[in-house]
Specification:
261 residues, mainly alpha, 3 domains, globular, disordered C terminus, membrane, pyrimidine nucleotide-sugar transmembrane transporter activity, transmembrane
Amino acid sequence: MLISGTANTILMKLQNQTPGVDQVPFQHPYVQCAIMFVGEFLCLGVYGAKKLYLKYYGKEEVIGSPGQAQAETLHLKTNINPLLLAIPASFDCIASTLMNIALTMVVASVYQMLRGLIIVITAIMSVIFLKRKLYRHHWSSMSVIFIGVFMVGLAKFIDPKSKGGETKIGGLALLVVAQLFAGCLLIVEEKLLGDYYLDPLKVVGLEGMWGIIFWCILLPILQQISCEPSQFCPTTSVQMDCSLPYQYAFASPLHSSIASA
């Protein structure tokens, strides 16, 4: 998870910095988020293939597994209304979009370190909304994390153009807000799915389905909103985001390989 998460940040930043159409930076945070949900939706295909395999070979799914045994003991539900998963998908959509925008404004190392703030935010939210109890070692660990994140953010706030690349203050703010929504996502999922025993592939796939639906609505709207080229708008158009230059850029082998990864 650490390796794939770091690789994701590096590849996304590399994609943002690679010259696209007309040699301008390839920055399409909204489309990138939409494609992320397409990747999540593909998990439904893996889930379906898994079900067919088990059915074809006459095997019962996860019979005898610790999770299944616990589910039967606790009388957990094994089916969920797909509409309920639209709630965490909406938080995921907002958080991922804000983080993608922030990544165009801050260096990758600062981006990755500031994301550690989600540990503190989620822990505090779990106390407030889930009535969890945290002990001294939890609070001590969170204090160390918060101090580290604060020092990183403060250093870039004082000297945005320090060694390693320029960081925009707006990007730092977006990252903090994004972690709030990401924390809400985790809390909602734990609260919502606490009474269920579900295949993770199915959950991720259904959330991806809702994400695609959201972006099928949002992308056409964003392409109609006038916006001067800035940190919130791609430099390739006067719309908040335009998927057409994104499609043209796939003619480049480098962009294709990065996007596929």
